[in-house]
Design goal:
Layout: E1 5-9, H1 13-25, E2 29-33, H2 36-45, E3 50-54, H3 62-72, E4 77-82, H4 87-95, E5 100-103, H5 108-139, H6 149-162, E6 168-171, H7 178-187, E7 196-200, H8 206-214, H9 231-234, E8 239-243, H10 250-262, E9 264-265, E10 274-275, E11 279-284, H11 288-293, H12 299-305, E12 308-311, H13 322-333, E13 342-343, H14 345-353, H15 359-373, E14 378-379, H16 386-389, H17 400-414, H18 419-426, H19 430-439
Parallel strand pairs: 1-2, 1-3, 3-4, 4-5, 6-11, 6-12, 7-8, 8-11, 13-14
Antiparallel strand pairs: 9-10
Helix pairs in contact: 2-3, 5-13, 6-7, 13-15, 17-18, 18-19
Modified residues (4-aspartylphosphate): 54
Protein name: Sigma-54 dependent transcriptional regulator
Pfam families: AAA_lid_14, HTH_8, Response_reg, Sigma54_activat
Length: 443
């Protein structure tokens, strides 16, 4: 690992040599000079992670140097030290963007602590910039944000399925982004120039669902003064996304099945068959096969929808994506006057250990709350909801099922999907592996 680079600007020779000795001894790469003007020349040559500058310097003073660094080297962190410590000086330095302000004579433990914290902040700032670049690339590609192994595989599957015209069933817990997966399939498909229409099957009665999906003719019911297209007709040539398909009433399941089989439908109150060319993507957070066995979901519709199944993983299975998601949501939801643009390490530690029962949607709400309440530029722990801020930072132990699922996924990836090889590595037969793949939605 490359040592962190620190530029020391101190006009007193003994103080400069002492700082250099202490910081070099702590493993940092130190460049020490005597004036702000020399400091500017050094910064023109290379980027430093941290600048430690005296406040009182010959020529350009420490505050002017601080302003120059913030304007031209925004990722470089600055610590101001001085033998003329006053509240006014401290406030001014912090207002100009200093990370911290240390009075002379320097206490070595305090210096080491502030340097460590400043470099942590620098590392976070660099990571935020990297993640923003990834997010920008993702916006040109897919609406799915994440770089974990699980998400890379999901995006690969989305790209592959987008080129096919088959129906797709997306399974996953609430808040995992199933609609974004559906949008990604549509965006990369040959239907991308047509409409993407979404309907939540759990928010309508059977009667309202009938009108929403199929539209109605004039005078089909009281108050129908004119005919109106439904979602299916409006989406002709495009994609229709049925969210929470498991909650679709049985009589509507029959009608949807007919559309998938015959590729036409009748408006409410109509007698003329209307042809329709749509791709259907459905999503559920329940076990449709179990609903079929209970008689709550039609088996024939289940097989029509379940041509290919995708699994949207819960956030606890791709925690490494939490920092990039936070950066994405800060960019997405920041309004004029909202100033937060980075996250404190303690806040990140808490969020990395939180179980997120509400998945990515819950994380998005947490970031929106912080933006609304925060006054500074950093997402600090006090901006977290109380129930999250009070949780222990120790991550909960994974269940045996979670561990098995994660290990099987890694073995499949390492064997490039070769199930015979994967079964041999796992010490089980192919039939047992196939069952586990189906159980954990690892197809």
């Amino acid at each position: 690992m490359t040592a962190a680079s620190i530029l020391v600007i101190e006009d007193e020779r003994i103080a400069r040599e002492n700082l250099t000795h202490v910081l070099t001894g702590s493993g940092y790469a130190v460049t020490a000079i005597a004036s702000a003007e020399e400091g500017m020349r050094e910064l023109d040559k290379k980027e430093f992670d941290l600048v430690i500058t005296d406040l009182m310097l010959p020529g350009m003073d420490g505050i002017q140097m601080l302003e120059h660094i913030r304007a031209h080297h925004p990722l470089t962190i600055v610590i101001v030290v001085t033998g003329h410590a006053t509240v006014a000086n401290a406030v001014k330095a912090m207002q100009k963007g200093a990370h911290s302000y240390i009075a002379k004579p320097l206490k070595l433990d305090e210096l080491r602590l502030q340097v460590e914290r400043a470099l942590e902040q620098h590392a976070l700032s660099v990571e935020v910039r990297r993640l923003r670049e990834i997010i920008a690339q993702g916006k040109r590609d897919l609406p799915l944000v994440g770089e974990s192994d699980a998400f890379v595989q999901l995006k690969k599957d989305v790209r592959q399925l987008a080129q096919m015209n088959c129906n797709v069933l997306i399974q996953g817990e609430t808040g995992t982004g199933k609609e974004l997966v559906a949008q990604g399939i549509h965006m990369l498909s040959t239907r991308s120039g047509e409409r993407f229409m979404a309907i939540n099957c759990g928010t309508f009665t059977a009667e309202l669902m009938d009108k929403e999906l199929f539209g109605h003719e004039k005078e089909a019911f009281t108050g129908a003064n004119r005919g109106q297209k439904g979602i299916l007709e409006a989406a002709d040539g495009g994609t229709v996304f049925f969210d929470e398909i498991g909650e679709l009433p049985l009589n509507m399941q029959v009608k949807l099945l007919r559309v998938l089989q015959e590729r036409n439908f009748l408006r409410v109150g109509g007698t003329k068959e209307i042809p329709v060319d749509i791709r259907v993507i459905a999503a559920t957070n329940c076990d449709l096969h179990e609903l079929v066995e209970k008689g709550e979901f039609r088996q024939d519709l289940y097989y029509r929808l379940n041509v290919v199944t995708l699994h949207a993983p819960p956030l606890r299975e791709h925690r490494e994506d939490i920092p990039i998601l936070i950066g994405h949501f800060l960019e997405k939801h920041r309004q004029p006057g909202q100033t937060i643009n980075s996250i404190d390490q303690d806040t990140l530690d808490i969020l990395m250990s939180y179980p997120f029962p509400g998945n990515v949607r819950e994380l998005e709400n947490i970031v929106q709350r912080a933006l609304a309440l925060g006054q500074g530029t950093t997402f600090t722990p006090e901006l977290l909801p109380a129930e999250i801020a009070e949780t222990e930072t120790k991550a909960p132990l994974p269940t045996l099922e979670d561990m098995e699922k994660s290990y099987i996924r890694k073995v499949l990836a390492s064997s490039a999907g070769n199930k015979t090889q994967a079964a041999r590595i796992l010490g089980i037969d192919r039939v047992s592996l196939w069952r586990k793949i189906k159980r954990y939605h690892l197809e």
